[in-house]
Amino acid sequence: MELILETADLSAYLAADDVIDHTHPTVRGTAAALSADASDPHDYARAAFEFVRDTIPHSFDAGDDRVTWRASDVLEWRTGICHAKAHALTALLRAGSVPAGLCYQRLTEDDGSEPVVHGLVALLLPGRERWSRIDARGNKPGVDARFSLDEERLAWPVRPELGEADYPLIRATPPVPVLASLRGARDRSELAALLPTELPG
């Protein structure tokens, strides 16, 4: 699949805002700690990915009712669903001057029911001509996502026969339906009911 940039302005994929708040001290402090042992941007990006994947539990896996959406809160509270963790990873990458954006999949259960939008991150490392997607939602039995730039190692490959799909757009900011569900939910059960089942386009 060929990924498509939402904007040709690369600075949009380095920007900070209310969601990807990489100027926040928590994000900056985490980025500084991760970069201390990194020899180059590739090492830093891998470290950031593994930090978010492995040290921030997916709230549905952990049974955590707290709902996070802002990158700094995800890092401080150490919880979030795939979308929130994608915000945190995007913020850490941008804090390390690595262009990063948000990508999405439409996934379902094994029978094609209960569709949901799943959040990923795309990044562009120096010296590379193409963006790569990575998935920091967190591993568990049956899920083995890895940091891999040439061959995708996402949590789930899509199954078109079940109505699943990859959205090729790399977004600089979260789409309205995703952010609205995160900001509007008071707990995990409300969030499950509010999450979008597909994205426009």
From TrEMBL:
- Show where the Transglutaminase-like domain sits: 30-136
Query: What InterPro entries does the record point to?
Result: Papain-like_cys_pep_sf, Transglutaminase-like
Pfam families assigned: Transglut_core
Q: Which residues form a coiled coil?
A: none
Origin superkingdom: Bacteria
> What name does UniProt use for this protein?
Transglutaminase-like superfamily protein
